[in-house]
Amino acid sequence: MQGPVPQGRLESGGTGLSSDLMSLCPLPLPRLCAALALSAALAQPAGAVTGCARDAMLVFDGSSSMAEVGFDPTAPTRIEEARAALARAMPRIAPVRRVGLLVYGPGGANACAGIDLRFGPVADAAGPVIDAVDGLAPGGLTPLAASVEAAAEALDYRTTPGIVVLVTDGNETCGGRPCALGTRLAAEGAGLTVHVIGFRVAYDPFAWDNPEAETYEGGAVVAKCLADRTGGLYVDTQTVIELAEALEVVLGCTVVGRRGGGALSGGTRDAPQEAG
């Protein structure tokens, strides 16, 4: 069985992110680490649609495990902490990128049918996203592949570049094939990037109805291959602050610049040259 994943771990998927760059990113500086890594990982060829010009869909885990109570009944649940992270991150993201929301888990005719496209990408989405997740009552299972595919369709991914950000606490449990989906999205899409944020993921080697059940070094969810195969990032987060920072990095506008002797540096969300 795989050991625990280091907190705040960030990996690029199929982008050739160098170990030299990652060595610049000590764990006490997770925000700088993520900004540097994302800037390099999402570098686009000349003429490509870059930065905040790309609309994004947030795919949010509303499955029953988000409300599970652990050994300490007084500790906050995953959904409570995820709400706090969104409240921190979305007011900083919404001014610079159009964001839509899809929630999976509750409300379906069966445990795998709860895939709810709340709204497509809109400007100033902080309030709508926060309100929707605040009102969410977790339930159901985890149809990861079907949810990401629905979000990609909402972005018209075959003709329009876009970003999907999947926030999940676990594995596919509804028979979907995230790895096969990642391959197809990369082949058919016109510049679709899928980022996967694992939040307090509990690796279950016996997860049921998960045809592609396997693990990746540094990632406890099979959904990591969605990032690997579309050039995105997989980020493991364990705390409110880590989740908020991960959301800001993958949905904000991060800048790559050269200063002085040519050192790579992360920038701000409102600078004119963006990556992502």
Task: List its salient traits.
single chain, alpha/beta, Rossmann fold, two-stranded antiparallel sheet, disordered N terminus
Textual characterization of the structure:
The protein has 276 residues and is of the alpha/beta class. Helices cover 30% and strands 19% of the residues. It has helices at residues 19-22, 30-41, 78-93, 126-134, 144-154, 178-188, 224-230, 240-251, and strands at 10-12, 55-61, 99-104, 115-122, 162-168, 192-199, 233-237, 256-259, 263-266. Strand 2, helix 3 (78-93) and strand 3 (99-104) form a beta-alpha-beta unit. Residues 1-7, 14-32, 34-51 and 255-275 have low confidence and may be disordered.
Show the helix and strand layout:
Layout: E1 10-12, H1 19-22, H2 30-41, E2 55-61, H3 78-93, E3 99-104, E4 115-122, H4 126-134, H5 144-154, E5 162-168, H6 178-188, E6 192-199, H7 224-230, E7 233-237, H8 240-251, E8 256-259, E9 263-266
Parallel strand pairs: 2-3, 2-5, 5-6, 6-7
Antiparallel strand pairs: 1-7, 3-4, 8-9
Shape: globular
Largest sheet: 7 strands, mixed
Number of alpha- plus pi-helical segments: 8
How many beta strands in the DSSP annotation? Answer: 9
**Which radius of gyration do the C-alpha atoms yield?**
17 Å
User: How is the largest sheet built, in terms of strand order?
Assistant: 1-7-6-5-2-3-4
**Through-space gap between termini:** 35 Å
CATH architectural designation = 3-Layer(aba) Sandwich
Q: Helices and strands: which structural class?
A: alpha/beta
Predict the CATH topology.
Answer: Rossmann fold
SSE ordering: EHHEHEEHHEHEHEHEE
Taking pLDDT < 50 over at least 5 consecutive residues as the criterion, the unreliable ranges are 1-7, 14-32, 34-51, 255-275
How much of the sequence lies in strands comes to 15-25%
Instruction: Summarize the amount of helix as a percent range.
Output: 25-40%
CATH H level, superfamily name:
von Willebrand factor, type A domain
CATH class: Alpha Beta
Number of domains: 1
The overall pLDDT average reads 76
